[in-house]
Amino acid sequence: MKDLGAEHLAGHEGVQLLGLLNLYLEQEERFQPREKGLSLIEATPENDNTLCPGLRNAKVEDLRSLANFFGSCTETFVLAVNILDRFLALMKVKPKHLSCIGVCSFLLAARIVEEDCNIPSIHDVIRISQCKCTASDIKRMEKIISEKLHYELEATTALNFLHLYHTIILCHTSERKEILSLDKLEAQLKACNCRLVFSKAKPSVLALCLLNLEVETLKSVELLEILLLVKKHSKINDTEFFYWRELVSKCLAEYSSPECCKPDLKKLVWIVSRRTAQNLHNSYYSVPELPTIPEGGCFDESESEDSCEDMSCGEESLSSSPPGDQECTFFFNFKVAQTLCFPS
Predict the structure, then answer these.
(1) Candidates 2.60.40, 3.40.50, 1.20.140, 1.10.472; correct CATH number of 6-30+156-256?
(2) Cα(96)–Cα(41) distance, rounded to whole angstroms?
(3) For position 259, what pLDDT does the model report?
(4) For residue 293, what pLDDT is reported?
């Protein structure tokens, strides 16, 4: 089988696509979360004092609901997850700080991806997410995250590869353009993002696995041949590819099963009591303050090279909800959309 090259692509656009693919392949490892840090989280048992896979996955589901609520695009969500995982894989984080870190990851991603008019304000995100932080807490944590990631927040993700592979396929195929749904593929990628294990996969491999499984369901020989050319050009070996494809297949099967409750596709609505609504409209400062998060300290080599300063703060401010929330007739629940509904 011939290698995928400029002569096999459609004109000037094809040459550009190949160049962009080569650029993504060079960059992907640079923006992957540290595998050692992810493995430490994976090996952590479920408890109240240590960050474990369940807490991380629940926070990513919250981010997905937060992105849906504010109408953010898929790229914002995927980048927010990348920022979150890179930070968690680098730092020793306590569960009580995870909500603040998640909100900051979302805001940082939104500022990179979204148009200015679509970037939610810090105060709006605080109120909707109920993260129990102040605006100054958020700004301070954003600074910590940015510094630890060396201000390299705009990353090459699996979504970049998914879009590029999809465009390359459309450039080559003689079949109907709408046969391969990008919306469905994006929804499937979100499902994978909600599981910590897929943060260990190379973005190029994860995207190719998603496309391969979808092409197999379409039973298209032509599309499969194009994907094989892309796989060969990307230097993805069979062992790695089949390992991740099996995990992706299991993940998607679970999300597609009848036992998996799927959210209503209607727009999310936040219904509150009159008193709570008045508090939300009239004050940006109804959220209890978190104690200041100290930045002093350094890496503790005796624990792990992945551990760092203890960003500890008081427990009491995280133990209860604001008084006004007790009178909500129905409070927006980010768990309402924990599972994914794939477009048909």
Answers:
(1) 1.10.472
(2) 15
(3) 57
(4) 53
- For residues 45 and 52, the answer to whether their CB atoms sit within 8 Å is yes
Report pLDDT for 132.
Answer: 86
d(CA 306, CA 36): 8
pLDDT of 20 reads 92
Residue given tokens 């009848």 in the structure block: 258
Consecutive H or E run containing 337:
none
Q: Where are the beta strands (DSSP E) in the chain?
A: none
Type of residue numbered 114 = E
Q: Distances from the Cα of 82 to the Cαs of 32, 55, 194, in angstroms?
A: 8, 16, 11
Answer left, alpha or beta for residue 210, where phi above 0 means left and psi between -120 and 50 means alpha: alpha
CA dihedral 7, 9, 15, 16 (to 10 degrees): -170
Phi/psi zone of residue 151: left (φ > 0), alpha (ψ -120 to 50 degrees), beta? left
* Tokens 């390992």, located at residue: 243
